[in-house]
């Protein structure tokens, strides 16, 4: 039966790749990668770099290949959950066709997930849908998340003593506000600006890469700096991945 590895490759730095992930990389014949346009070519390039670094080449050269899949357009209007469901469904059909045509009946393929496959990543949900079209088995190799890198770079614990931490999105932060500590991901609108000025923020972008950016302080002190730095970085690179931790003032 066809097999698929879902491999968490960490948040940017090839040194974050685990020994378990390296074993899975060396077990893979076909790597499937989503082509998200020129602005994100470097994300595919990093995946290739990781493979070149960690996969042992045989006497006839590398025993693997990359198959890049065109990412379907996501609708810009409509009810949020339905838009995402439709987008995932379109991806699943593309993935199913690729697995069936590019991978032999007993072949092994892989999807390389940025960070960890369980954290705000759609790979596992889509593979469940792919299973409706083509038969295969799969496993999941965890990776170092952007949250771990963020707290390590700022040298801070994720939580206050005995206190919980919420992992949420910018949209949810705007709708529900902040109580205690929260990690915010997928925030294109710098939603921390709606928090009280005394709220502590630890912000990072391109974590684990040579372009890494870090800011720490209160929303009132450095919020405008983060907004400006984020806009400039996004213009320069054409894309941005940022994550931040908020903590209410006591």
Structure commentary:
By secondary structure, the chain is an alpha/beta fold. It is 35% helix and 23% strand. The chain has a five-stranded parallel β-sheet with strand order 3-2-4-1-5, sandwiched between helices. A hairpin with a 7-residue loop joins β8 and β9. α3 (80-102) crosses α4. It is globular, with a radius of gyration of 19 Å.
Q: What structural keywords apply?
A:
five-stranded parallel β-sheet; globular; five-stranded mixed β-sheet; 4pyrrole_Mease_sub1; 250 residues; 23% strand; CobF; alpha/beta
Output the strand order for the largest sheet. Answer: 3-2-4-1-5
Shape: globular
| pLDDT averaged over residues | 91
The largest pleated sheet is described as: 5 strands, parallel
Weakly predicted, low-confidence segments: none
Write the layout of secondary structure elements.
Layout: E1 3-8, H1 19-25, E2 30-35, H2 41-54, E3 65-70, H3 80-102, E4 108-113, H4 123-130, E5 137-141, H5 146-154, E6 165-169, H6 170-176, E7 181-185, E8 200-205, E9 213-218, H7 219-237, E10 242-247
Parallel strand pairs: 1-4, 1-5, 2-3, 2-4, 6-7
Antiparallel strand pairs: 7-10, 8-9, 8-10
Helix pairs in contact: 3-4
